[in-house]
Write a structure and sequence with these properties.
Blueprint: H1 12-19, H2 29-39, H3 52-58, H4 63-77, H5 81-104, H6 108-113, E1 119-124, E2 127-132, E3 141-145, E4 153-165, H7 167-170, E5 176-177, E6 196-197, E7 202-214, H8 220-230, H9 237-266, H10 271-285, H11 290-307, E8 310-312, H12 317-322, E9 326-330, H13 331-335, E10 341-347, E11 350-354, E12 365-367, E13 370-372, H14 380-389, E14 394-398, E15 401-405, H15 408-419, H16 424-430, E16 432-437, E17 445-452, E18 455-462, H17 464-469, E19 471-476, E20 479-482, H18 485-500, E21 504-512, E22 527-536, H19 541-552, E23 556-560, H20 565-575, E24 584-587, H21 588-592, H22 596-602, E25 606-610, H23 614-626, E26 631-635, H24 641-646, E27 649-653, H25 659-664, E28 667-669, H26 674-714, H27 730-741, H28 743-748, H29 772-797, H30 801-824, H31 835-853, H32 857-861, H33 868-898
Parallel strand pairs: 9-23, 9-26, 19-22, 23-25, 24-25, 26-27, 27-28
Antiparallel strand pairs: 1-2, 1-3, 3-7, 4-5, 4-6, 4-7, 8-28, 10-11, 10-22, 11-12, 12-13, 14-15, 16-17, 17-18, 18-21, 19-20, 21-22
Helix pairs in contact: 3-5, 4-5, 4-10, 9-10, 9-26, 10-27, 11-26, 14-15, 22-23, 26-29, 26-30, 27-30, 29-30, 29-33, 30-31, 30-33
Length: about 900
């Protein structure tokens, strides 16, 4: 007995021999006990518990956090204890938020374990007993019944109309008909192993017996758990960029302290004064509000996304979405409705179109773009009525949503009939059920005998080729005529036409039955062929538009599905998914034949992947990442979880997604809609823009403050008494840092989206915040602002040092407050579009006026009241600087944003 045999490739007797068990009595208790000691419990290992304390400490393992700690200590050294306390509060608050987010993200394996069935029916020594699923061992004989979760992987040995829903594992939307027959082939995708059942899937109908082949980590679900455990999440682009910023700030920190201090001493300034000034400049150079503002900006982005049906589990993932270049998206339920819908009907030689999507009984019957009254189309009402009377499903409305109870295919037939005014409850009551011959994968048909007002009738639905062989008549142009070979060819051609559009085709037939005919399968003969009903899981109406938006934004949309290749390609064509140069579709079997290097070289040409496994999805994500692309991966099934965790941004479906997928993800889409993902990408781009604006605003004006001090030292600025003069004192620097870096910077975090947010190409993963355009724009603003402030200082010095200090500080504060719009204008955002920013600017300006004109406070900051002429000078400088910056932004705005 070896693990992971190709059990599907063996006959029932061979499987029994390899597992050393008995087909009817199962294992003995002693043998089961021995095997349990060898294999261990049939459960997935629980992830090692993470220490909350260590996780909290890890939040401080960040360069910029340590810079802030040093800045807080410096502020304390200068006696600014309020500033010290504020910085430490920011550090702790940010760490707590990060701890809460990441603690939730480590629960994937615990959720995976909950998918295992707690108990199951086992036959040992010929006795049926209920045992914990964890006690199952290879070779055990298990009874499977409808509604039960499969406890482990196994080989079917007996079955009666057995079907299993495996979408959580394979991504295929339709339940799978099971068989006990041997399947030929060494490599068969999970979705095609019809003689196997798998842990975590659900039996939807019928019953059967299985022999356990693998348990625990050896199961297909266990392999996924192992993949999930091995994958470690990489740092997000935002985390990478903030670390890059932190390293640059260290250089700035050291350079400011050394250069300013050395130059000041060289030019004759006092030792203590230069030490305080240098340290104050160092504090000013570090945007201590950066983590707080980034956190607030991301949190506000989370709120916006929640209103657009996207729930974010990791704050930094908001920004990651904004630079997504590839979205790998599951077809069923995300690009499609996940609700089978009749799209075409062939009756009486005519092909009709049925509009409407999903299970809602709303839509029209059309021919050549013209709406029809279904009751007036020959044989259409009867064809629809057969679909209702040979049906075990129910269609109902719950909380305004139309749903089906039963098989999705049968639900589609009920919906199509309801669009024509046919009600299942009424038809059932008028046509009593007498006998049923159920559907199974061998027969490929289903029949129901009913007592109708016209007598006994047998209603049959099933595969087209099967029912054509059993039909002798057909309904054509209002008459019942013999089914000729010519008519058979016509029906088969209609069937092929539908199949080429990836439609699933159901034939419907009937016949009159006499009272004395036996109730058995032999009734299914001499049928009257009524028509064809073709259905599919239709694309969401908004998905095509969203894919077009992605294309304009430079984002590749890639469909990855467990469905068949032809079905996936048909949906892709309808959605406009194929792009120029990217028109290929690949199956899981074809992917197996490719090396990782070959996949990486070819991946840019492939838009559709079909019949794929968890390992395939993981390879696809890794191949895109190997090309340097930021990848978003969506999914709802257990099989999606490893790829979701590996992706830069993992997206789970809120309605159909399993706990495993949600816990492994960064984001959950509450309406399972691809359009909501695109909306989230748009918000993510806006969040990143706001973070860049904030950083540029802070660094530009902090650099301007440094330039003012350095320039005054280099040009040897003197006060009226001939002493060396520094335009800003240590206290004034700290005050300006508080006034301008506080509320205005935070208010930038809630700026509206730029009009062209989704018209730009996505950023590269390796792209730094400090692009050439960013650095040049920051340098221009800093130089212009520093020059204007030094001009105000020089004018003030003609009277006295205190006036010079006051004019320099006030000019700098005014220019920094004006600078908010200087930074925003290159994004084409109106000055009045952010009311909170207007409030923040007003508060900051009032605080500056407060320290200028309040007696007592003036002395603390070494300021004097300003007269009308002084204000005239300051406002004139403001107008010149503002006009100059506006003209520069007007001419080079695109370069500043993209270079």
């Amino acid at each position: 007995m070896s693990p992971n045999e190709n059990w599907w490739n063996l006959g029932v007797e061979e499987v029994c021999g390899k597992l050393e068990t008995h087909l009817s009595s199962g294992l003995s208790q002693d043998e089961a006990r021995q095997r349990f000691e060898k294999t261990g419990p049939n459960q997935l290992p629980e992830a090692k518990g993470i220490s909350p304390f260590k996780l909290f400490l890890s939040q401080f393992n960040n360069l910029i956090v340590w810079i802030l700690i040093v800045a807080a200590l410096i502020a304390g050294f200068l006696g600014e204890w309020i500033d010290t306390a504020a910085i430490f509060a920011i550090i702790i608050l940010n760490s707590v938020l990060g701890f809460v987010q990441e603690f939730r993200a480590e629960k994937s394996l615990q959720a995976l374990r909950r998918l295992a069935s707690p108990t199951c029916k086992v036959i040992r020594e010929g006795l049926l007993q209920s045992l914990p699923a964890s006690a199952i061992v290879p070779g055990d004989l298990i009874l499977l019944e409808a509604g039960e979760r499969v406890p482990t992987d196994g080989r079917i040995i007996q079955f009666i109309q057995l079907r299993a829903q495996e979408s959580a594992l394979t991504g295929e939307s339709e339940p799978v008909n099971k068989t006990s027959d041997r399947l030929a082939g060494e490599k068969i995708p999970i979705g095609d192993r019809r003689n196997m059942v798998f842990m975590g899937t659900v039996v939807t109908s019928g019953k059967g017996h299985m022999l356990v082949t693998e348990t625990g980590l050896q199961t297909e679900l266990g392999k996924i758990a192992a993949l999930l455990k091995e994958e470690r999440r990489a740092k997000t682009p935002l985390e990478i960029r903030l670390e890059q910023l932190g390293r640059k700030l260290v250089v700035i920190f050291i350079a400011v302290v050394i250069v300013v201090f050395a130059l000041g001493l060289f030019c004759g300034n006092e030792f203590v004064e230069m030490l305080l000034t240098a340290l104050s400049l160092a504090v000013a150079a570090i945007p201590e509000g950066l983590p707080a503002v980034v956190t607030i900006t991301l949190a506000l982005g989370v709120r916006k996304m929640a209103r657009r049906n996207a729930l974010i589990r990791r704050l930094s993932s908001v920004e990651t979405l904004g630079c997504a270049a590839v979205i790998c998206v599951d077809k069923t339920g995300t690009l499609t409705e996940d609700q089978m819908t009749v799209r075409r009907i062939w009756v009486s030689g005519e092909t009709l179109e049925v509009t409407g999507t999903g299970y809602a009984p709303q839509g029209e019957f059309r021919k050549a773009e013209s709406a029809l009254d279904p009751s007036g189309v020959a044989h259409l009402p009867l064809a629809l009525q057969i679909g209702v009377l040979c049906n075990n499903a129910n269609l109902y409305s719950k909380e305004g949503q139309w749903q089906i109870a039963g098989d999705p295919t049968e639900g589609a037939l009920l919906t199509a009939a309801a669009k024509a005014g046919l009600d299942k409850a009424r038809l059932d009551s008028e046509n009593a059920l007498l006998y049923e011959i159920p559907f199974d994968s061998e027969r490929k048909r289903m029949s129901m005998l009913r007592e109708t007002p016209e007598g006994r009738k047998l209603f049959v639905k099933g595969g087209v080729d099967i029912l054509l062989k059993r039909s002798e008549w057909a309904l054509m142009k209002g008459e019942k005529i013999p089914l000729s070979e010519k008519l058979k060819v016509e029906i088969e051609a209609a069937n092929q036409n539908f199949a080429s559009q990836a439609l699933r085709v159901i034939a419907v037939c009937f016949r009159d039955v006499s009272v004395d005919e036996p109730l058995e399968e032999s009734l299914e003969k001499n049928l009257v062929f009524a028509g064809l009903l073709a259905m599919m899981d239709p694309p969401r109406p908004e998905a095509k538009k969203s894919i077009a938006v992605c294309r304009e934004a430079g984002i590749r949309t890639v469909m990855i599905t467990g469905d068949h290749k032809e079905t996936a390609m048909a949906v892709a064509r309808e959605l406009g998914l194929f792009e120029a140069g990217a028109t290929e579709a690949l199956s899981g079997a074809e992917l197996d034949e490719m090396t990782d290097e070959a996949l990486k070289d070819r991946i840019g040409k492939i838009s559709v992947y079909a019949r794929v496994s968890a390992e395939h999805k993981l390879r696809i994500v890794k191949a895109w990442k190997a090309k340097g692309e930021v990848v978003a991966m969506t999914g709802d099934g257990v099989n999606d979880a490893p790829a979701i965790k590996e992706a830069n941004i993992g997206i789970a479906m809120g309605r159909t997604g399993t706990d495993v997928t949600k816990e492994a993800s960064d984001m959950v889409i509450t309406d399972d809609n691809f359009a909501s993902i695109v909306n989230a990408v748009e918000e993510g781009r806006g969040v990143y823009d706001n973070i860049v604006k904030f950083i540029k605003f802070l660094l530009s004006y902090n650099l301007a403050e440094i330039l003012v001090i350095l320039a005054s030292i280099l040009i040897g600025l003197k006060d009226p008494e001939g002493n060396a003069f520094i335009p800003l004192t240590a206290v004034q620097l700290l005050w300006m840092n508080l006034v301008t870096d506080g509320f205005p910077a935070i208010a930038l975090g809630i700026d509206p989206l730029a009009p062209d947010a989704m018209s730009r190409r996505p950023r590269r993963l390796s792209e730094s915040i400090f692009t050439r355009g960013f650095v040049v724009h920051m340098g221009i603003i800093s130089i212009i602002v520093a020059a204007g402030s030094l001009a105000a200082c020089w004018i003030g010095l003609r009277e006295n040092a205190h006036l010079a200090h006051t004019m320099t500080l006030t000019t700098l504060v005014m220019l920094e407050l004006m600078g908010v719009q200087m930074v925003r204008s290159i994004y084409h955002i109106s000055f009045f579009s952010n009311r909170w920013l207007l409030v923040a600017l007003g508060v900051s300006w009032l605080l500056q006026l407060f320290i200028i004109y309040t007696p007592g406070v003036q002395q603390i900051f070494k300021l004097v009241p300003l007269g009308i002429s002084d204000w005239g000078v300051i406002l004139s400088i403001g107008l010149v600087v503002g006009a100059t910056t506006w003209l520069i932004n007007k001419g080079f705005g695109r370069f500043f944003r993209s270079a």
